[in-house]
Fold this sequence. Notes:
Blueprint (H helix, E strand, L loop, with lengths): L7 H18 L4 H11 L1 H6 L15 H22 L8 H10 L13 E3 L3 H7 L3 E3 L8 H11 L6 H8 L10 H4 L12 H21 L5 H19 L4 H8 L2
Antiparallel strand pairs: 1-2
Helix pairs in contact: 1-2, 1-4, 1-5, 4-5, 4-10, 5-8, 5-10, 8-10
Bound molecules: fe (ii) ion.
Fe (ii) ion (FE2) binds next to helix 4 and helix 10.
Amino acid sequence: MINMELKAEQIQSNWEKMLGYINAYISDPRREKLIEFYKKHEEEIMLMPASHKKAYHNSFPGGYVDHVNRVIEGALATNKIWVEFGAEQNYTVEELVFSALNHDLGKLGDEDNYAHIPSKDEWRKKNLGEMYQFNNALPFMSVPERSIKLLVDNDIKLTKNEWLAIRLHDGLYDPANEPYLKAFMPELKPRTSLIYIVHQADLMAARIEFEKEWLPKFGKKEVVKEKSKTNIKSKALGSIKSEGLKNMLNSL
Length: 252
Ligand SMILES: [Fe+2]
């Protein structure tokens, strides 16, 4: 089993990297307000997982910031491809980074109740690796909507493009987005490509996180182990003369 947990220094440097993106791409007064907000919840955001469920991506301490940085970097890189292929720049790079940075902010919970609490269920921790559980004190609201509410509540204004990019970042994986993304009439289609770029970056990041964490657990290691075991066994069997001993080793 690959240990996906991040070291303390990595968690710290990921956090600083994320604050660095705010300072580099977001202009005042929003930059200042975002830094203030993130610092207010520093300990929780720095350590929170991208999900409380083990089966989801980056469900380990520090997994959230690790994911967010990957989405920011992925969005900047994906943007270059869209530009190269002739996409109109109907959004700014600040809007792109702002949306990527805050797309999953609602995973924090709200300011009365954080969404993730350390699991008290020993069986689920031991057998399923679920180190967190969902905090049932937190009333239901979709993650994108809670992301937007947290920003608005902290007087951090969003542009229309950012609002839509955060709201729709799950693309058609969330049927609630269909009225925006399945419109046939030209006047009802989104007027910015930003939403598709943020969605693509998020999809790519989550897929890569899944591959890194889970694919090695699906037999790759066992195959290698089995192969080397067979080699050792056949080598050992070749040098043994006694039939009885050979049979015994062969049945191992
Ligand atoms: Fe995400």
